[in-house]
Every structure is written in C-alpha cells, then in structure tokens.
Design goal:
The complex is a heterodimer of chains A (about 300) and B (about 350).
Chain A (H helix, E strand, L loop, with lengths): L1 H8 L5 H9 L5 H10 L2 H18 L36 H37 L1 H15 L3 H9 L7 H28 L2 H8 L4 H37 L11 H8 L8 H28 L5
Chain B lengths: L10 E2 L2 E2 L7 E12 L2 E13 L4 E5 L6 H9 L7 E10 L2 E2 L5 H7 L4 E4 L3 H4 L6 H13 L3 H14 L5 H4 L9 H13 L5 E5 L7 H18 L2 E6 L2 H7 L2 E6 L2 E7 H6 L4 H8 L49 E2 L6 E2 L4 H11 L4
Parallel strand pairs in B: 5-10, 5-11, 8-9, 9-10
Antiparallel strand pairs in B: 1-2, 3-4, 3-6, 6-7, 11-12, 12-14, 13-14
Helix pairs in contact in B: 4-5, 4-7, 5-7, 7-8
The chains are: A mainly alpha (about 300), B alpha/beta (about 350).
Chain lengths: ~300, ~350
C-alpha cells in the first residue's frame, strides 16, 4: 500500500531516536507540570518549608529535646537565650519546644479540613456539574446559601455550643464551613470539561456515567481544584489560629500556635517574643502553602507557563 | 483478533433481532433543543437506513442537523436542553429510543460506535492512547490492564499506526492529526461494532491525509462488513466512498438515492445548488454558482418547503405545503420537491450540468 509507506516515512527513525522518543513520553500534563515546578525557586522553597513543617509535626523530637509540658515556674517569662532559644512563657515552659510541638495540631487541622472539604466538593461538584438540571439547581443553591455564612462568625457561633473543643471539633466546624467555595470551583470546572468532545466520545463508546466522571472529567478538571486546595491548607491553619485566639478554638492544655498567640495577647508590650515566635512560624507556614498554590497554578496552566 | 460474523449476533441488549431488518434504520426522527430564548428544531423528520457492508453518506451544510441526528442515534444528546420528540431508531429491528439507559449503553460502542471530527479534542489529553483504547476492553469486557494494552497495540497495528508497540504509551498531543484520527478509529473498532458512524472524520485533516483515512475506513469496512454512516459536507469525500447518499436540509432529508444518480441527475433544487457550487475537474466552467441566501434559522423554519426562500424555482405552493419524499421511479430514489420533473427539465434544458 502506497499510503502506508508515506505515513511511515516521517515517523520511522533510527534506533537511537526511538529511545529518545521513549524518554520524552512523560510529556503528560502532570509530567510537564512537574518539570516546570522543580525549576521554580518559589516552588522549591515553599516545598522545603512545608516539608520541614511536616517533619516537625510528625517527629517534633528531632527538633528539640525539651519537653514542652515541663514548666518550672521559676523560669517564667524569660527572653530568648542560649538555654531557651525562644525564651519561656508565663508558666516557665520552653517556648521553642512549644512552638515545635504546636506544628502538629495546626498541620493536622489544615490537612484534615482540606481533605474532607475537598472530598465533599469533588462528589457534590461532579454530580451537580455533570447531571445538571434539578439536581444541579438544588446542590448549587444550597451551596450558595452556605457560602453566605462568614467562616469566622459561623465558627464562633457553632464552636460556642461545644463544651470541650479539641482538634476534632474545630476541624468539623471548619469542614462544615469550608466546602462551599471548593464545590463551586469543582462544579464550574466539571461543567467546562463536560462539554468537550472526548466526553461525548467516551459516552458514544459506551462508558458509564461513573467512568466518565472519574476517568474523563475529574482528571481534566482537577488542576484548578488542587491549586485552591493547597491554598486552603494555609487558610485553614490561619482560621484555626484565629478561632483559638478568639477563645472559641482549641483549649488549654492543647499546644497550638493559635492558642500561644491568644495567651500572648495580654503581654504584648512586656514580652513581645511570646507573640512574635508563634506568629512568625504560623505566617511562614500559611505563606508556604499559598506560594505553593501559586506555583502549582502557574505550572498547571499552560497559558501562564 | 477473532472476527465474530455479523450473522451470529442476533441479540441486541438481550432482545432478539428481527430477521431481515436493516442493520440500522432511522425513521421520522425529530430533535429539538429547548433553550431560554426559544426552541431550536435541529432535526425534523430525517429518515434513512443502512445495511451491512454499505456506506451511506449524510450530506448537508453546517447547521443542517447532520451531527445532531447522529447523536440522537447514539443517544448522547445532552438532555436537557436536547430532546428527541418523535421518531424511531431501530438496530436490527430493535427499537433503541425506548430502551433503558443501561441496555442502550450495551449497544453503544459494542454494536454502534462513533468517531468524531477532531480527534485531538475527542481524545482525553491526560491519558495515553494505549490506556484509552484499552479502556474499551476494560469497560465492556472486564479485561485486565495488560490485556487491554496488548489489545490496543493490536488495534493500532490494524489501523496502520507505525511502531504501535512503541507508540502505545504516547499521549494524544504527541501524534499528528491523521494518526490521532487513526487512534480514534481504533477505539471505535475495538469492540467490533456492526455500525460505525463517522461524524466528519476528515474535516480537520489536510487533503492527503483525508484520502488515507477514507481508504482506511473503507478497508476496515471490507474486512469487518460493518455498515458505515458517513456524515460530511464534503461532496468529494462522498463521491469516492459512499454507496447511497442522503441530502439534508434544515433537519430533514430532501433527497436520497444511489450516489452516482444523485450526483449526475439531482432531483432537488438544493442538491442541484450543492453540485453547482462545487468545483469539478470533469466539467469545464468559468465560475461557480453558490446557493443564494443562507440556511434557515432553526428557530423559525420557513412554512412549506424549508428551502423555498432560496429556491429559484419556488412557486406559491412551496410556501404553504411541505413537500413529502416521493419515489421517482429510479431504484431507491426519492425527492421532496413539488416540482421534481419541471425542475429537472429546466436544468437539462439550460445545460448547466451533465
């Protein structure tokens, strides 16, 4: 067949070229994004900082040998020194150790809330966006109404109902208040992907709705959602701190950055280090997640690359 | 790949096929889109059928309802806003329109498959082509990943993609347009369908590649005996491969017949207009005659014959009464024009075409 020869012509390459082509094969959306990311200083820095915070959360013992709960009152309110890097608080606890141990609660809440809110958003958003019609109207309107509740105000009202407020209660409230934005994002993303020809094509070739959503729509609508979720981790950590500061978040004896800032507020003028250290670590963490979200957005959007 | 002869597939989603029925028959189908600003009547009474080993071309300009009618046959019209309001689609005599979605899905892909105009947008950008072809086997036959990939390589060989084994893990954007269309065809052929609907399969390709793809489709048809429905606005493509042609205007068929009859002796003013507006190497002519006016607004289709505002032969009756398809005496030849004989005579006298 003459046309076969013509087609093979421009693709049949010497062997070494074929090998090269095989290596090039990682050129998928995520492969490209990854290669764009590791070249970005912003991503590398934010990823490193997040990694350090994660390790701090899982293995605080690696960073300090002091016990954050051993608090000799005789050493109260010391300024930073070689003995106590971040000084000591009003109880005489080592402030550096407390800051390190505080990472666990903050990061745990950030990840739990984002994971659950993202799950709700993915399920609700795909159903709403894919099926449209009355289901969509229902889900979208409920979301809009929920969306209208201000997170902090809603958090104060709901958390005030709990007698004991731990990580679980605070996370629950932030999940309940946090999913609407993400759901709206998933929904609009799903709607735009739903119109594409490959979805029609998958349907024409007999794919089930479940398969179309999980294999064709979600992987293609995930990019903006992942970016937003990354930023959300930071926002949630800040929200936890805000709630704790307002005395409706975590309660002592829990160790969290928000609680430390909250306790420090009475002594801002006399012992500013009590506010500075947890505040700085909190800001760096939130900042890292937001930077990472930005870097991801640039990498996943071919138009911005 | 083992070929199951078409004759043994006498069950359609569990229902017995009607012996002697055409492979696929579409009767008087109506599709409308109910939008906020009005109802768009995209398909208005289209009727046609296709048999095994036969190629039927559905010919019409943009907006004539070609693609929508194909989507209606597949059952993939987005609803709402699209609704099939009337008509029947029978596969081997079994009605598809009233079938439950679950049964309908067994027909899609396995018995009737479809390929789309632009294979780049019709392939999922985030998965490899091997994964996407293999998905057909995983979805319908419950194959493992490995089996799916092997089958994909075999199919890619069959649609003549060179170095299939090496290319199976490539992504769609790494292929040229022609190769992507081959991948699409491989996916459509994966389950050995009885009918393949090709919706403008060559429109997005350049001319030399168009010929290769049409050749491939016709070779594959020879091999499998499937019925091929070719949707196109390209009169040249139709002339080369189709056995019969259905000319569509404003969502309805205006003329049907054997390809050479329709080309050499059109029996509807619209078909004549199409023929006159096409450059041909077999007829010496100084300039082309386009059809005057533009296709009708599908929200306000003219009363009577939908073509009347553009028709040089239109009479009063054309503005009032919608002409029905009637036989012309020639085999399988029908036309929906009140004045077939007069129009043909006038055309022959003026000697505008053969």
């Amino acid at each position: 067949m003459s046309d076969r020869v013509a087609i093979t012509g421009d693709i049949e390459l010497p062997d070494e070229h074929v090998d090269e082509a095989t290596e090039d094969r990682v050129a998928s959306l995520w492969g490209d994004a990854w290669r764009a990311l590791i070249r970005k200083p912003i991503f590398v820095i934010s990823a490193l900082l997040i990694l350090i915070m994660m390790v701090m959360a899982v293995f605080p013992g690696l960073f300090t040998s002091k016990d954050p709960r051993s608090c000799p009152l005789s050493e109260a309110l010391q300024t930073p020194s070689a003995e106590h890097w971040f000084g000591t608080d009003v109880q005489g606890c080592d402030y550096y150790a407390r800051t390190i141990y505080g990472a666990r609660v903050s990061i745990t809440i950030g990840l739990i809330v984002t994971t659950f809110a993202l799950t709700i958003a993915l399920v609700g958003g795909s159903i709403s966006g894919y099926y449209g019609g009355i289901v969509d109207t229902l889900i979208a309107r409920v979301t809009d109404m929920w969306f209208a509740i201000p997170t902090i105000l809603g958090g104060i009202v709901i958390l005030a109902l709990f007698q004991n407020r731990g990580v679980a209660q605070v996370s629950l409230v932030l999940i309940v208040l946090g999913w609407p934005t993400m759901l709206r994002l998933v929904r609009s993303s799903v709607i735009s992907v739903k119109e594409t020809e490959y979805v029609d094509s998958a349907r024409a070739l007999g794919a089930t709705d479940f398969r179309i959503i999980t294999r064709h729509i979600l992987p293609n609508s995930l990019a903006p959602v992942i970016v937003y979720a990354t930023i959300t981790v930071g926002v949630v950590i800040a929200a936890e701190a805000a709630l704790s500061f307002l005395n409706v978040g975590l309660q002592l004896p829990a160790i969290s950055w928000g609680l430390m800032i909250s306790t420090a507020q009475n002594r801002i003028l006399t012992s500013p280090h009590l506010l500075f250290f947890p505040g700085a670590v909190l800001s760096i963490t939130v900042f890292s997640f937001i930077l990472m979200g930005d870097a991801l957005r640039d990498a996943l959007d071919p138009k911005l690359r | 790949m083992t070929q199951v002869p078409l004759q043994t597939r006498d069950l359609v989603a569990g229902k017995p096929a009607v012996p002697g029925a055409p492979l696929l028959s579409v009767e008087n189908i109506h599709v409308e889109f109910r939008l906020d600003f009005g109802t768009v009547k995209a398909v208005n009474g289209l009727t046609y059928h296709v048999n095994e080993r036969e190629t039927v071309a559905i010919l019409g300009e943009s907006g004539s309802g070609k693609s929508v009618s194909a989507q209606a046959v597949m059952g993939i019209i987005d609803s709402p806003p699209g609704f099939v309001t009337d008509g029947s689609v029978k596969f081997r005599g079994v009605e598809l329109l009233t079938m439950a979605e679950k049964e309908r899905r067994q027909v899609r892909g396995e018995r009737i498959a479809m390929i789309f105009q632009d294979a780049l947008t019709a392939l999922n950008p985030v998965f490899t082509v091997g994964w996407q072809i293999g998905e057909m086997f995983r979805e319908h036959h419950g194959s493992t990943k490995k089996e799916g990939l092997d089958a994909a390589v075999e199919l890619m060989d069959r649609v003549k993609i060179p170095l299939a084994r090496d290319r199976v893990n490539s992504y769609p954007h790494e292929f040229s347009g022609g190769m992507r269309q081959r991948v699409m065809i491989a996916m459509a052929l994966a389950l050995d369908p009885d009918v393949l609907i090709a919706d403008e399969p060559t429109t997005a390709l350049d001319v030399t590649v168009q010929a290769q793809i049409m050749q491939l489709l016709s070779d594959l048809q020879e091999e499998t005996g499937m019925g091929l429905i070719l949707i196109t606005h390209d009169l040249g493509v139709v002339a080369e491969v189709a056995d019969r042609v259905v000319v569509m205007y404003a969502g309805d068929s205006v003329e049907k017949g054997e390809i050479s009859d329709v080309y050499h002796n059109p029996a509807h003013p619209y078909t004549m207009g199409l023929m006159d507006s096409m450059p041909r190497h077999d007829v010496q002519k100084d300039r082309l005659n386009p059809i005057k006016g533009s296709p009708p607004d599908l929200m306000a289709i003219p009363a009577g014959c939908a073509f009347n505002p553009r028709c040089p032969y239109a009479q009063d009756i054309c503005r009032v009464e919608k002409p029905h398809l009637h036989e012309l005496g020639e085999a399988g030849r029908v036309s929906a024009c009140h004045f077939v004989e007069e129009v043909r005579d006038a055309r022959n006298r003026s000697g505008s075409r053969l």
